[in-house]
Inverse folding.
C-alpha cells in the first residue's frame, strides 16, 4: 500500500503535501515523511506513526522548497520506525516508494560493494542508490530507464534530485500512480483521491511508464525511455462527502449512510415503472456466458460468496468464487464462456488487480464491481458496474459491502431474467421488494442501545464465533471479520452445520456466539445447531427477523430481531447489527476505529 504525493510548484509546497498525506492515510499510517528541495539541499523530515506526529515533531511551516515529495507508509520491509520511514535519500536523490522490490537483497550487496552506505532496513533504499549510481554515467531519462529495468517486483515511485531541482520523476509498475495538473503547478499522487482537492485533471500512468513532472510541463516515457503522449481525464469531484460531519468516526457515518447508498444503487439500476433492471451496454450475449467466476479479497470476497447463493438460486449458471491472492497463482483452466467478475471497493487491491490482469491476458470476459470508478480495476475491465456508495474512508468496509451485494444481487436477477431462468412474476416481485430495502435498513439501524450493551460481553471474552447457514453464512464470516479487525478479538465465522466437525471443541462456558437464524428455509436447522452450542455453555446472541412465532429454544442470552423482507434480502438486514457490534466493541476499548492497527484501506501490495 503506502501513499505517495509529489508537488512541483512556483510556491512553497510543504503545507499542500501535508494536506494530501492526511488524505492518503487510508493507504498506510505506520510512518510519514516529506522531502523538499531548496538552496541546493534535500530537506528530509520523517516520523513514526501518523501525519499528525510529523506535524508535531517538526516545524513544517518553515520547511522551504517549491518542489517536494511525501509518503505515508504501510510497512513491508523493516519495522515501522522513523529510520525506515520514507523518503529515503542519498546526497543527491530522494525517493518515496509504494510496493515491494523483490531483488533488493542482491542489489543491496552489489551496491555496498560499490561503496554505498545503507541506513534503513527497507527495500526502497536500493532504488535511491541505484539511481545515484546510474546518474554518474547517464543523463536523467536514461538513468531512470536503466534503474527501472534493474528492479524486480512492484512499485510506484516519486523521486527528487538535489542537482536537478526543478522536477519530480514518477514511475509505475504494478502499483498505481497518477499525474495531476494545476495552475502553475503539477502533481504526482498514488491515486486521484490524493489529488482531488487540488485538481480534477488527471493522467494515469500505465505499467512500465515513467514521467517527469515540472511546475509547467509534464512529460511521459515508456519503459524504453521513449517519449509518449497520454490523455488527460477530467474527474468528477465531491469533496463534501469526505467529511465526518457530526459523527465521531467515518465508520459510524458510513454505517448510518447505508439506507441512502442502497437507495442510490437501486435508483441507478432499477426501473420501478417497468419493474425491470437496467444494465445498459452489457457487452455479452446470453449464449456467450455459461458460468461465472467471482473474485475478491476480504469483505469483497464475502460479497462474492454471498452472490454465489443468489446466482445459484436465480440462474442456472455454474458459479465459482475465488480469493484473488489464491486465484492469481493457481493453475486456472480459463473458460471462454465464463464471465469473470472482480469485486473491490477501492478498485486498487493488488491481488484482485493481478487476477484481473491474468484474465485479460487470457482474453477472458471481465467485469468490475467497484466503488471507485476511476480505479485501475475499473479501467482495465471490459465492463464496469459501479456500486455508487460515495467515498468509504473507514478501513472496515461497511456501506461498500452492502453496495457490492446489492449490485451482485441485481446482476443475478437480471441474468436470471434474460436467460429465462427466473419466472417473470418472481422477477417483478423481487424488484418490488427491493424498493422497500432502504426503509428496512433504516429501521434496523435503530438497534443501537441494545447492541452497545451486548458489546461489553464480547470485549471480555477470549474469543467468539459467528454461525449461519445458507444466505446467512457469508454474513457470519463478514461479522467475524469486522469484529477481529476493529476490536482485535478472536472471532471465527462458521457454517452452523460444520460445528460438530471440530469447532464445537472451542465452545466453553460463557463464550459469546452470534447465531444468524432468520426465518428462512434453513431456520430450523440453524436453531438446532444453536441449541448444541447453548448446551455446551455458549452465551448466544441470536439475530433473527421479526415474526409472530416465538423462537423455540431456551437459554438464549440475547435476541435481536431485524425487519422482515423476502429471504433474498435478509442478508442486508442481518449485516447491520454485526457492523454495530464491531463498532461499539472497538469504541469501548478505545481503539482507533477508522484506522485499526496493522491495516490500511487500500491494499496495493500482494
Ligand atoms: C474489510 O473491512 C477490509 N478492511 C478488507 O477486507 C477489504 O475488504 C479488502 O482489503 C478488499 O478491499 P477492496 O474491496 O478495496 O478490494
Amino acid at each position: 500500500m503506502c501513499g505517495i504525493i509529489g508537488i512541483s510548484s512556483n510556491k512553497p509546497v510543504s503545507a499542500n503535501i501535508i494536506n494530501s498525506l492526511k488524505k492518503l492515510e487510508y493507504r498506510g499510517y505506520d510512518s510519514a515523511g516529506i522531502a523538499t528541495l531548496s538552496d541546493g539541499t534535500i530537506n528530509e523530515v520523517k516520523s513514526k506513526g501518523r501525519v499528525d506526529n510529523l506535524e508535531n515533531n517538526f516545524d513544517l511551516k518553515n520547511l522551504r522548497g517549491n518542489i517536494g515529495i511525501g509518503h505515508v507508509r504501510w510497512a513491508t520491509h523493516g519495522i515501522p520506525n522513523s529510520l525506515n520511514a520514507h523518503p529515503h535519500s542519498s546526497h543527491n536523490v530522494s525517493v518515496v516508494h509504494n510496493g515491494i522490490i523483490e531483488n533488493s537483497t542482491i542489489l543491496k550487496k552489489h551496491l555496498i560493494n560499490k561503496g554505498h552506505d545503507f541506513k534503513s532496513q527497507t527495500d526502497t533504499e536500493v532504488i535511491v542508490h541505484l539511481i545515484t549510481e546510474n546518474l554518474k554515467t547517464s543523463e536523467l531519462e536514461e538513468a531512470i530507464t536503466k534503474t527501472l529495468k534493474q528492479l524486480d517486483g512492484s512499485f510506484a515511485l516519486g523521486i527528487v534530485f538535489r542537482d536537478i531541482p526543478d522536477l519530480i520523476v514518477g514511475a509505475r509498475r504494478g502499483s498505481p500512480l497518477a499525474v495531476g495538473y494545476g495552475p502553475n503547478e503539477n502533481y504526482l499522487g498514488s491515486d486521484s483521491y490524493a489529488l482531488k482537492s487540488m485538481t480534477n485533471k488527471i493522467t494515469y500512468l500505465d505499467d512500465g511508464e515513467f514521467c517527469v513532472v515540472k511546475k509547467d510541463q509534464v512529460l511521459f516515457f515508456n519503459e524504453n525511455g521513449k517519449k509518449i503522449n497520454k490523455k488527460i481525464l477530467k474527474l468528477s469531484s465531491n469533496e463534501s462527502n469526505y467529511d465526518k460531519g457530526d459523527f465521531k468516526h467515518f465508520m459510524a457515518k458510513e454505517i448510518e449512510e447505508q439506507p441512502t447508498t442502497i437507495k442510490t444503487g437501486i435508483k441507478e439500476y432499477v426501473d420501478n415503472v417497468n419493474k425491470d433492471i437496467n444494465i445498459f451496454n452489457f457487452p455479452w450475449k446470453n449464449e456467450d456466458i455459461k458460468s461465472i467466476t467471482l473474485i475478491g479479497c476480504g469483505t469483497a470476497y464475502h460479497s462474492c460468496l454471498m452472490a454465489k447463493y443468489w446466482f445459484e438460486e436465480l440462474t442456472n449458471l455454474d458459479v465459482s468464487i475465488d480469493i484473488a491472492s489464491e486465484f492469481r497463482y493457481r493453475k486456472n483452466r480459463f473458460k471462454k464462456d465464463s464471465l469473470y467478475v472482480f469485486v473491490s471497493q477501492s478498485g486498487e487491491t493488488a491481488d484482485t488487480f493481478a487476477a484481473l490482469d491474468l484474465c485479460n491476458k487470457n482474453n477472458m470476459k471481465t467485469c468490475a464491481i467497484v466503488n471507485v470508478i476511476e480505479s485501475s480495476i475499473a479501467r482495465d475491465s471490459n465492463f464496469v458496474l459501479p456500486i455508487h456508495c460515495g467515498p468509504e474512508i473507514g478501513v472496515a468496509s461497511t456501506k461498500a459491502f452492502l453496495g457490492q451485494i446489492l449490485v451482485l444481487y441485481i446482476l443475478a436477477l437480471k441474468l436470471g431474467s434474460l436467460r429465462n431462468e427466473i419466472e417473470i412474476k418472481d422477477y417483478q416481485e423481487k424488484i418490488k421488494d427491493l424498493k422497500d430495502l432502504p426503509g428496512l435498513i433504516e429501521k434496523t439501524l435503530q438497534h443501537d442501545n441494545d447492541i452497545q450493551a451486548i458489546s461489553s460481553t464480547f470485549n471480555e471474552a477470549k474469543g467468539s464465533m459467528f454461525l449461519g447457514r445458507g444466505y446467512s453464512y457469508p454474513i457470519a464470516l463478514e461479522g467475524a471479520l469486522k469484529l477481529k479487525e476493529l476490536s482485535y478479538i478472536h472471532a471465527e465465522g462458521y457454517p452452523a452445520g460444520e460445528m460438530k466437525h471440530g469447532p464445537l471443541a472451542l465452545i466453553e462456558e460463557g463464550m459469546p456466539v452470534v447465531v444468524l437464524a432468520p426465518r428462512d428455509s434453513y431456520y430450523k436447522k440453524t436453531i438446532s445447531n444453536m441449541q448444541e452450542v447453548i448446551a455446551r455453555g455458549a452465551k448466544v446472541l441470536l439475530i433473527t427477523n421479526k415474526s409472530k412465532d416465538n423462537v423455540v429454544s431456551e437459554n438464549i442470552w440475547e435476541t435481536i430481531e431485524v425487519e422482515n423482507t423476502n429471504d433474498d434480502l435478509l442478508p442486508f438486514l442481518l449485516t447491520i447489527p454485526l457492523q454495530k457490534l464491531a463498532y461499539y466493541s472497538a469504541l469501548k476499548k478505545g481503539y482507533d476505529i477508522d484506522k485499526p492497527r496493522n491495516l490500511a484501506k487500500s491494499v496495493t501490495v500482494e
